[in-house]
Amino acid sequence: MTATIAPVLRRLYFVRFAFAVVWAALLFLTASDIGPVSATLLVLYPLFDVAAAVIDARSSRSTRSAAGLYVNVAISLIAAAGLVVAGTSGIPAVLRVWGAWAIVAGLIQLVVGVNRRLMGGQWPMILSGGLSVLAGTSFVLQATKSDASLTNLGGYAVVGGIFFLVSALRLGRATSER
Q1: Where are the domains of the chain?
Q2: What phi and psi, each to the nearest 5 degrees, are found at residue 144?
Q3: pTM for the full model?
Q4: Cα(14)–Cα(85) distance, integer angstroms
């Protein structure tokens, strides 16, 4: 089973890394306010997460992690819709929605990673899930401050992308050792 899932996950994790880095760079360039480009980027991120979770779930259909991935699809769709609405209310509203999404998605990622730990290459995903919960909490708290900014979301994406890269590399190594 691992032999069929691991290559799909590895490719998916590399794509997620590249997407996160490009997305973050674009957000850094547009994060000073919520304009058409930054608003589009904000909604695009959870929609990309939906697509990635669907690919992951399809490759993991026969495992316990598929159910968690489908829950993640629903949560990310709700987050995308919430970000559309929050984008019209300002940066604090966006940070609250993004923070709530990061907390729930992080918990799901943590559970999926723990369920897959025997596959190899999942410790970065477990750590990333835990950090996502902490980052989400910090976004919610940041929303209460007068200097709330979208730039931290870019940093969050880059760190998450790095965890996907490390996991892809470790997953490749774990697969070749078997």
Answers
A1: 2-177
A2: -85, -5
A3: 0.90
A4: 31
